[in-house]
Amino acid sequence: MNLKNFYSVNAIFGEGTIEHLQKIEKNHIAILMGGKSQQSVVDAITDKFDKLGKEWRIVGNIKREPHMEDIEKPLKEVIDFKPDCILAIGGGSVMDSAKAIWIFYEYPNLKWDDVILPNPVPKLGNKAILIAIPTTSGTGSETSSCAVVVDKKKMEKKLIISQNILPTLAILDTQLACTMPKHVAANSGMDAFTHALESATSNMNNSIVQRISLVTLLDIFKYLPTSINGAKDSKEFKEAREKIHIASYLAGIAINNAGTGLAHIFDQVGPKLNIPHGLTCAILLPYTIEFTEEHPFYLELAKVLGYKEEKGYARFLAQKIIELNKSVGIPPSFSEMGIGEKEYLEAMKEDIETSINSGGLQFAAKVPTYEDAEKFMLKAYYGK
Asked: Where's the Fe-containing alcohol dehydrogenase-like C-terminal domain (predicted)?
């Protein structure tokens, strides 16, 4: 018998589920949030905490993909406050930061090098629980065992991966998804799309992951354009935002059990050129699919989308993704974003040199050589 573990975080979802926070039996709550867009949500939560006699403190605001030094100030606040609950309200950067803070709060003697992949993370929860409330729909960090931080000295992303950093509880209040700006919704939605497709074709995939991914991908194809371009007060817009919020969560479950692929592995051009992660993945994905070329899941998805042939399906699928990108305002190449050729080529070279030796390649459906990676990275710049 081939036994496989399947991991999923405890979650509550639906409109208004943020009210569940009143039932949490914790009384000393540290709040980590994103920018000003989340302030009204945080105010509503803290008003209820005040009425319930709970102590709380906002320990920090995370406004970008977390750099290692961004963790230092909120960590000091957490250590001083001594919470029994860490509450992360925001996008993936906030939730990833909260995971790192949770580790170092529970184990103050640990250093970054002690927990960065491939090093393990000890069991958490002795001092506090972690509750994640996503306000964007893409990273799936609320249900993943991964945290991404940027090493500023090298401008490289570093990974912490351990089932021990899974949040204790995820609350998916679909109302919160309706507040995202269009560009954030587009980038994060395509991040979720990339998660679903890459996990389904990872060498770690299984039948459960592939079923989750297929439903997720079809929902994103169907609902993402309306979630960006629909009339904000319309029933269709609200439904689309809700569907993508749930799709992000499902895609997070998929990557938590099967990992990602080439668009994520070779995304180091993002931090080097200050390109948002989801946007980087969205542009890279069609070209990494064309490189991978043959995979049974590509064929299955292509046929569901109407493709009738047994060959050429990877190119068909890549084109469908380019069309989806265009429908939500994402260009087909980095050059069309206005990224200069010289700076891209320099960042690309560093990216390939770093990524080609990445441990993540062991999960890729097809492993590229340096020359292979150079070809699809150049296509991603020039669009051909």
From this structure: 186-347
